Amino acid sequence: MVQTQQKTECSFTPTVTNNCTARVYTWRSRVPQKAFERLELLDAKVSRAVLRGRDGGNTILLPDTDVRDAEWIADLLQHGLLTGSFIPPAEQRELRDLTRYRCSLVEERARTVNRLQKTLEDTNLKLGDVVTDILGKSARAMLDALLAGETDPQVLAGLARGRLKAKRAALEQALVGELKPHHRFLLSEHLRLIDTLDEAIQRVGQQIEARMSTPEDSLQEQTIGTQAREQDTAVDQPVAQEEKPALTWEHALVLLCTIPGISRRAAEVILAEIGLDMGRFPSASHLASWAGMCPG
Fold first, then answer.
1. All domains in the chain, ordered by first residue
2. Among 75, 56, 69, which residue's Cα sits nearest to residue 13?
3. Are the CB atoms for 261 and 201 separated by under 8 Å?
4. Second label for 223, Cα 20 to 30 Å away, from 81, 91, 112, 129?
5. Residue 5: CB partners within 8 Å, gap ≥ 6?
6. Residue 127 near residue 146, CB atoms below 8 Å
7. Residue 134 DSSP one-character state
8. What is the C-alpha separation between 85 and 240, in angstroms, rounded?
């Protein structure tokens, strides 16, 4: 890398130039390791016009803004004006991966249910207009009977359970439609995929619950971080009260579930994102910023 006062150049041999994108590594000897971790890659979109051969390679003139930003951040780090980024403990990162994966499964299940409803609308079956849950016990029994070949609306409406029995007349009208073979195939595939996603969501939920119910390992890094912050103040201040017990995942779940509208699953997602140790956040505004809810 050749640096001048006017411009910064980087010579390399690109492997792919179709997307007109060059990934340029920062200069390790110029940028200290901490800053290099933040600036490992600079994505500079350049046009083919700036690619020209020289000594068997290519020269790319980077946009001045990217280079100046890199130099500015490196200069700030050298003067001690940058603080370290917060990296959650390993166990919290693992929990976060699990909760985010479960969210993706739930979203995929919702999309599949919508496709199921669309297929029913194509057959002129208005089951979703009568029942509250298209995958409830009564509705699922009717769908299974439809896939088995039953088409009599009275027989299908007789599968209603509970309070849905009072809507039998509406069910008989809603279950009149034309179910073609390809509709049966699509409905069968949708239901099979929904069952598979339900099983996957249950397995992931059990894994999350098992990890949050074992506080011994989860408290190690939290306890170390809390003791490190309290060491400086404990030397000058006398011991006025006994040390409070460390917060466990299960206790934190119970506390969050006391908030109206917060279920256990939502509490698990919140804890996986923010962790147990709130001492790392200087204020509630910092916590809202970390959670991506600014302005909070």
1. 2-78 (no CATH), 92-212 (1.10.287)
2. 56
3. no
4. 81
5. none
6. no
7. T
8. 33
What is the distance between the alpha carbons of residues 91 and 189, in angstroms, rounded to a whole number?
A: 37
* pLDDT averaged per 10 residues, the chain (length 296): 42 41 40 47 38 43 68 85 81 93 96 94 90 90 91 90 89 90 94 96 94 62 47 47 73 92 92 87 84 69
**Is residue 15 left, alpha or beta, with left meaning phi > 0 and alpha meaning psi from -120 to 50?**
alpha
Q: What does pTM read for this prediction?
A: 0.66
Place of tokens 């769908």: 143
**Residue 60 near residue 50 (C-beta atoms within 8 A):** yes
Contact 9, 64 (CB under 8 A): no
Q: Would you state the structure tokens that stand for residue 151, as one six-digit string?
A: 């088409």
Radius of gyration of the chain (CA): 30
Which tokens hold the place of 260? Answer: 């109206």
* Nearest by Cα to 223 from 279, 173, 170: 279
